[in-house]
Design goal:
The chain is an alpha+beta fold and 157 residues long. Helix content is 21%, strand content 37%. The chain has two domains: 31 residues; 117 residues, Macroglobulin (MG2) domain (Immunoglobulin-like).
Length: 157
């Protein structure tokens, strides 16, 4: 009798494990990764993680497989209402020093660059790959805050 009860318990455990594994594998098959590389905006070996950002978001840029001869700078540039462009930040790169790297920008208020209020941050931007033939990547910063970042955008000038 004890052997039969033990056998029933072992079978019940095995059935539970099999059901759990099957249900877990079904979840994996149906899983959609929101950060899937296909959703990134690419220009050659350069890519950003989305087209629109909230105030406080970091703009992640990944670089995978630039040529050894590629050398230049990655410039985050704001497109002003009159069509002129203002360079916000610049990151030099050299394929001889590395063909893969990650960087991020956080557009924020900055007295030195005369970015004094939210109105100066919100708008259309592009990431320009100066010194290369790669097309720039366009993005937009919306007039909406990432939770907890509201006080970081109080006017400073």
């Amino acid at each position: 009798m004890k052997k039969q009860i033990s056998l029933i318990i072992v079978i019940a455990i095995i059935i539970t494990i099999v059901i759990s594994v099957l249900s877990f594998s079904e979840e994996i098959d149906n899983y959609i990764d929101e950060n899937d590389d296909d959703k990134w905006i690419h220009s050659g070996p350069f890519a950003i993680d989305r087209e629109e950002y909230l105030l406080g978001h970091k703009i992640f840029l990944i670089v995978r497989g630039i040529e050894i001869d590629d050398k230049g700078s990655i410039n985050l540039t704001k497109i002003n209402e009159d069509g002129t462009k203002s360079k916000i930040t610049k990151y030099p790169f050299d394929g001889k020093k590395g063909t893969e790297f990650n960087i991020y920008f956080t557009p924020s208020l900055n007295i030195a660059n005369e970015i004094c209020s939210v109105e100066d941050v919100v708008g259309n931007y592009e990431v320009v790959f100066e010194g290369t033939n790669y097309k720039s990547i366009k993005l937009k910063i919306l007039n909406q805050y990432l939770t907890g970042f509201e006080n970081r955008y109080d006017p400073i000038c």
